[in-house]
Specification:
Layout (H helix, E strand, L loop, with lengths): L1 H6 L5 H7 L5 H5 L2 E2 L7 E2 L16 H35 L11 H11 L7 H17 L7 H6 L2 H10 L6 H11 L8 H31 L5 E5 L9 E7 L2 H11 L2 H9 L5 E6 H11 L3 E3 L4 H6 L5 E4 L8 H6 L4 E4 L10 E2 L7 H15 L15 E5 L3 H7 L5 H9 L4 E5 L11 H12 L2 E5 L1 H9 L13 H10 L4 E3 L6 H15 L8 E5 L5 H11 L4 E4 L9 H15 L3 E3 L3 H20 L3
Helix pairs in contact: 4-6, 4-9, 4-10, 4-23, 5-6, 5-10, 9-10, 10-22, 10-23, 11-16, 19-20, 19-25
Bound molecules: iron/sulfur cluster (SF4) and Broken Fe4S4 cluster.
Iron/sulfur cluster (SF4) binds next to loops.
């Protein structure tokens, strides 16, 4: 597809990446500050030029401020998504959004029970209280930990947070406080700055993102195993192809329904098409593949290539991870790029603003726009690759427990016996700094070969699926122990747990395992990796995992190397307090080795293995 792009005269992310070389060294090291207009200031990493900004800020201060501003942006993105989900949920309860309903009452009751809400009432009453508590977590003004973190995080973890004074008090406040503290002349202490970064990240993982996941399950159903397929080959030449790209399931759920509407199918036929294909991309794709088995066209680095097939009649985007270049690429074909959120508009795109109160009508309008664009295809530019891969997805914590026969015990037993040596979470994006999908796939393969059960989310999931790692037969690539468990349970050795906000499913699973074993999450043979991360959300995700006791390996280097003090804090010192820490490794082999070593050392401590 890169070659097709070239011959069609389309510029892609890889071309622009080349044009940016060499990228700014100060930026790579985190040593540039432009937080006030006495700057911009740069610190000389070789110690020959300036060692302080105009205001006197040191490398440690500047690197820390830059890093936690990344965390703030990532936490804000996730949590704003979570808030939107919670607001629609509240509107369901108030009867203001007729297109939506409470689909999973059992999940709602289980959330309510965790929050201490009385469930022995009409479901609407329960829902009202749960919605109120969630929204309070975004706006309360006291200093107590947010209710969702309090209800979901293990007691031992919460104690650590209290001791460090990093328990999140309000999801939004922690983000705002980062912006305050990093303003010129406020917080200059690297440790203090990074602690606030941790607090905001915890507000994301155990707050905003968690609310996003849990309420989406209640409204759209908790995922269960379902077969589907992934890669650009899921597009069909003779059908109207609609791609939904971004992160929020609120609209894409309705687009899936609208595309199945007889009236829409008839309209597509009247334009000469055989039907309508809806395919996902990035995490909107993950949301609809997990719940409905809707195929996924690709992950982050494939968004431009999808349009390059010449067969995408509409690319419908909500927000996050949407390249502004999409409209330039679409100009070379007939594709309509449709923006739907007031928060995320693209010059050159058609804007059809989404309103949950008119969800069905708007979803139909979008599908209709795609259908009407079908006859505008440029025949000579159509070229859909054949590649697509099948697999089983839909592994929520609930469905994993179901697959295990109703309790975690068989998994715990397999871990204790050594059939499964440990669990690894692989998450995150694509990044043109590394070969597309290679890190994701190779790390996963090495881990399963060493009897590590792999779970993951985001663009990792799409990479793993395209490589066949979600097929039950992929168990053949696993070590003998893991292979036997997979065959017995009829599951693949790599499990798709959802979108980026659904990393909270991994937090919940790890917490449940720790509690079942009576240990802290940091004592478990568990490790995480983000081999190809690029987004600020990944900074927040990595930080909340580390602050929750998980060893996390990054495959692309964060902009922190300009300060040894900050590097030491994140890769060494933090382990003494939270039990988790970061590491950075660039090759998939070494990423996997670090995770394997960590898991082996935890097994030794926990189970006395040699
Ligand atoms: Fe320079 Fe300090 Fe202003 Fe940053 S805050 S731009 S280091 S003077
Ligand atoms: S979509 S945040 S590129 S995983 Fe969630 Fe993929 Fe990363 Fe976006």
């Amino acid at each position: 597809m890169k070659e097709k792009a070239k011959s069609d005269g389309v510029e892609t992310v890889w071309d622009r990446f080349e044009e940016q070389q060499p990228q700014c060294g100060f930026g790579q090291l985190g040593l540039c500050c432009r937080n006030c207009n006495m700057g911009p200031c740069r610190i000389d990493p070789f110690g020959e030029g300036p060692s302080k900004g105009v205001c006197g800020a040191t490398a440690g201060t500047i690197v820390s401020r830059n890093l936690i501003r990344m965390t703030a942006a990532g936490a804000a993105a996730h949590s704003d998504h979570g808030r939107e989900t919670a607001l629609v949920f509240k509107e369901i309860v108030e009867g203001e959004v007729p297109g939506y309903e409470i689909k999973d009452e059992a999940k709602l009751n289980s959330i309510a029970s965790r929050l201490g809400v009385n469930t022995d009432r009409e479901i609407e009453e329960v829902a009202k209280d749960v919605a109120e508590i969630a929204l309070e977590d975004f706006g309360k003004q006291d200093d107590e930990v947010i209710s969702f973190a309090n209800a979901y995080a293990p007691e031992s973890l919460q104690q650590v947070w209290q001791e460090l004074d990093v328990a999140p008090r309000n999801i939004d406040r922690e983000v705002v406080e980062i912006m305050h503290r990093t303003h010129m002349g406020v917080d200059a202490d690297p440790l203090n700055l990074n602690l606030q970064g941790i607090r905001a990240a915890l507000g994301d993982g155990w707050g905003g993102s968690l609310i996003g996941t849990e309420f989406s399950d209640v409204m759209f159903g908790t995922p269960e195993p379902v077969e589907s397929s992934a890669n650009l080959g899921v597009l069909e030449e003779n059908k109207v192809n609609v791609i939904t790209h971004g992160h929020v399931p609120i609209l894409s759920e309705k687009i899936v329904e609208a595309a199945e509407d007889e009236e829409m199918i008839e309209l597509a036929k009247s334009k000469g098409a055989d039907g309508i294909v809806v395919a996902g991309m990035c995490c909107t794709g993950n949301e609809i593949i997990m719940r409905h088995g809707i195929p996924t066209a690709g992950n982050f680095l494939q968004q431009e290539l999808a349009i390059t097939t010449g067969a995408v009649d509409a690319m419908v985007v909500d927000y996050q991870c949407i390249m502004p270049s999409l409209t330039d690429v679409a100009d070379c074909y007939h594709t309509k790029v449709i923006t739907t959120s007031e928060k995320a508009k693209l010059p050159g795109a058609e804007h059809i603003e989404f309103d949950p109160a008119k969800a069905d009508k708007i979803a139909k309008q979008i599908i209709k726009t795609a259908i009407e664009n079908y006859p505008a295809r440029k025949e000579e530019k159509i070229g859909i690759p054949e590649e697509k891969m099948d697999g089983v997805v839909g592994f929520s914590v609930e469905s994993i427990v179901d697959a295990l026969g109703g309790s975690l015990d068989p998994l715990l037993e397999a871990i204790k016996e050594g059939q499964i040596k440990g669990i690894a979470g692989i998450v995150g994006c694509n990044n043109p700094k590394v070969e597309h999908d290679e890190g994701h796939v190779e790390v996963a393969k090495k881990l399963i070969a060493n009897d590590i059960l792999v779970v993951g989310t985001g663009c990792w999931s799409i990479a793993a699926m395209k490589d066949g790692l979600f097929k039950p037969e992929a168990a053949e690539l696993a070590g003998d122990g893991l292979q036997a468990v997979c065959e017995q349970l009829e599951i693949p050795p790599c499990l798709h747990m959802g979108s980026c906000v659904d990393n909270t499913r991994i937090l919940v699973a790890v917490s449940a395992i720790a509690e079942a074993l009576g240990v802290e999450p940091s004592q478990l043979p568990v490790a995480g990796a983000a081999p190809e991360w690029m987004s600020e959300k990944a900074v927040s995700i990595g930080t909340y995992f580390v602050a929750s006791g998980i060893f996390t390996v990054l495959g692309t280097t964060p902009p922190v190397l300009g300060s040894n003090e900050v590097v030491k804090l994140l890769t060494e010192d933090i382990e003494e307090v939270t039990g988790g820490k970061f590491a950075v490794e660039s090759t998939p082999n070494e990423i996997a080795d670090l995770m394997l070593d960590h898991i082996a050392s935890k097994r030794k401590e926990l189970l006395g293995e040699r």
